[in-house]
Structures
1.
Amino acid sequence: MLARICAFLWVILLASWTLAQDVPKFELQPVVQQLRHPVYVWHDGISDRLYIVEQRGTIRLVEDGKLLPTPYLDIVQQVESGGECGLLSVAFSPKFAENGLLYVNYTQKKGRLRTIVSEFRTTPEARQVDPSTERVILSIDQPFANHNGGHILFGPDGMLYIGMGDGGAANDPHNHAQNPRSLLGKILRIDVSSGDPYTIPRDNPFLSDRRFAREIWALGLRNPWRMCFDPESGLMITGDVGQNMYEEVAVVSAGQNHGWRAREGFHPNPTLRMREEPISVDTDPIVEYEHRTYLHAGYRRQALDNCIGGFVYRGRAIPALAGWYLYADYNSGRIWGLRHRRGRLVANQLLMETTINISSFGEDRAGEIYICDHQKGAILKLVPR
């Protein structure tokens, strides 16, 4: 009883704190249009260029504010695109100015569906990447066409982090997210700066546990679609797409088990019909939101929402937004912001209602934030209001 009272009082205090804050305001300014299903926008760390990932298998280059007509990278012929498949993200080596290396994550179907993480070689000033320079770093079989994860990014430690969904279908039927030998339903961490094609970092959490694949950094995730590292705190935050009831945002640390498929958000998985072995859940989400409900033929039904993880704003154009982590929902177009202290939620606020199918947030070298309009083929920038 005391615990429930304390939790109730904390919710009241949190609501009061949020209302007392200066809720950040911003607008969405179109910067690029006439794209084909953009799913990510990123920078190379050394220039003001923007690189826009189109799901079909191309990366488009924006230079001096203009979209160049010829794709920066074109691998359409080897990408399985549609639904949740496609070319899904790009990451540039922290030493891109020196080595000209970039990495992509895409789905491929040659006999069977699989996730491919590949390296390409170019020069920093090039406007096109030669597809023949591809070197496959990692290939992971996918049992179904959804929950591919798809985000790759370099952490502040220089390691490459790879978000992998549970392999698809409903309720993770093969229990990949809890299988210590499977790379699905995990966040992976590898070192692509050495080895052929990579090495396992010596401080990976399960390196000495023979039950686990050594690439695993965290487990128990359903579909971590977008991840980020807060440049000030160094914490990783990810949006994890839910099943039928709850979407979640989680702070992720080495070795943690986030509980899927036994749990959805803070709750036991309400649709699970199979007997589960007890699991040790190491951490709760930092926040969840419930799927919207609507009436259809007199019955209440759940809308299929999809959480889109974003970034902690550290730019300069919108000072009131500094330190807020932004996340959104693909179907409803809503954009929220949250603040935390060492992984504990202190504010959570709906910031904007839109009609956009937001497939991803993105960031430029200055820390300014963009969103991808998946259906209308546009990139919009967050600007002061």
2.
Amino acid sequence: MTKNPHIVLVAGGTAGHLFPALATAQTLQAQDYSVALICDHRTHSHLQSQNITITAHTLPAASPRSRNPVTIALATFTLINSTLKAARLFIARRPRAVITFGGYTSIPPAIAAITLRIPTIIHEQNHTLGLANKLLAPVATTIATSFPDTRGLPKYARRKTTTTGTPVRANIAAVAGTPYKTPQDSGTVNVLVIGGSQGAETFNHLIPETIALLPENIRSRLRITQQVRGDTASVRRQYQDLNINADLAGFFTNINELLADTHLVIARAGASTVAELVATARPAILIPYPHAANNHQTHNARNFANLGGGQMLAQDKASPRTLADTLAEWLANPDKLIAASNALRNQSPKNPEARLANCVRDIIARKSVGRRQTKERLAL
């Protein structure tokens, strides 16, 4: 293999797209690939706030899903403009492959790559194929999925589909090697509350109100670590009134350490969150965001529950009373927590980052063989 073949990754929107891309970038760089990232302004801001170093190119993104003709026209212009910019970048950098991780940001670079005959892999993190990936599936070189039974995958596309799992960052993967420890009879109970990269505003009041309804023998031992969206001071006051030890932040950079120490997670069901819970074998109560596109969080949460890793609770049924009863049932049964952790450990896909990197290697090799055979035919 030629030294330092250049690979472009495309990730836009939230951390659910970004983190699998960064995990893949780490693996490719370790295998001596040169890697760059195409993202939109939201992802680029997230990179800067987390001090993540990678060559990044920003492209504007827009959703064409609207009934307003002006909005549709502007979105169409943006997509065409971004496609041309991506094409110019590819002509200058000559990547050997492009990997996209969903979202509307992925459409222009994928179209540019396919037009320029650059092998293109699309990766789907969710249990349901997203709209962007559904549009790109017919023309992508390879489709990589996180689940063997991904919903919405066209039958004609299955012959070029491979199940890799969702790549997770190296510090998260390292937690997989740490044993799960149940709370001791009189020890601290660590509950981690996360809502994805943007938090979950619903949790700001739901979780404190839930904690207030727990039996005293559980509540007095709790340590809550919660990702808060918006008014952190208000949430802090609620916990202070309950005399609860709580660590609150808008985003946690040490999520690997928190997962290693947690006994139970309460979370949304974004693809990246679920992948990290499976990889680290941490039990969870998942409350999927009900307005997610194609209801994909509900499908993610249901699949997680079916693996035996925890319980799904629909948001319209997640009253403080219901959630308190559910939480108490889990925290009062160490054997149930251990069984959930073991179920996840047995189901966790092995080395999804390496599997996706192998897809890159394979399509580069096939492309090289095709070129060589073409030259041989022309020489006859």
